[in-house]
Amino acid sequence: MKVSTMNCSELLHLNYIPTVWEVFDALGNIGIFLVSVTGIATVLVFAIFFQESIYLFHHWPRQQCFLTLLCLNTFPFAAGGFFISMVFPNLAETAKTIILIYLPVSLVVYFRLMINYGGGEKVILRKLFGQEMILQGPPLCCLCFCCDKPPLTRRRFFFLKCSVYQLALTPVLLATAKYIGIEYGIFIEGLLSPYNAAPYISVISTLSMMFGVYSLVIFSRIAAASIKDFQMTHKFAPLQANFLLIRLQI
């Protein structure tokens, strides 16, 4: 089957995936230029990551270096995944799934990194015990605008921790449910139906992201003062922006 013999609507209806050469032929000179620019940007992201990795390896404690690199590699990981899906359409769905599974892991690792900076879970909990929890934060700031500022307790810390950890578990479960749904014909993207699994998976994924990020924002605000020497607020901003932008795109 050649792309040129059929229009886009027919190809989408048949779920046809073009080959690499068909993609370049359809993109034309402007498309090839954009792909080249994207490739160069991807290489730059990898180069910066490797440069930072070498610096951290030689100057930071091993555990903090390992956790920091796990946070930072979400940038080359996502950049490489998007570039591969652009050039190789037959790998786009696989790349998207892998990105969705790995992306939240960086936020969980960031949570562990803050705890490590604070001296460990027991130490940082002892430092933060009884401090006010500021609930007015994204992405649920509008819903919690009038909420009180309850003190941090062991039970509330456990709830925050579970809410952050589920960011790593939920995408794996949802990806498994998605492929099972595709196998049995009950997962169809873009179809709003009570018998279609796609809307339910999308809603669960959104709720998981919202509560996970919200819990991480709450904890980062509480812990900011006790680990202020590490400038965690400046580190969290690009990580959170990267996570939210990619989640909105895919």
UniProtKB/TrEMBL annotation:
Keywords from the named record: Membrane, Transmembrane, Transmembrane helix
Top-level taxon of origin: Eukaryota
InterPro entries recorded: Ostalpha/TMEM184C (IPR005178)
Presence of keyword Transmembrane: yes
Location in or out of the cell: Membrane
Pfam families per the UniProt record, alphabetical: Solute_trans_a
Topology of this chain in the membrane: Multi-pass membrane protein
Keyword Transmembrane helix attributed: yes
Name the UniProt record assigns to this protein: Organic solute transporter subunit alpha-like isoform X3
Annotated TM spans: 30-50, 66-88, 94-113, 158-180, 200-224
Gene name per UniProt: LOC111087739
PANTHER family per record: ORGANIC SOLUTE TRANSPORTER-RELATED
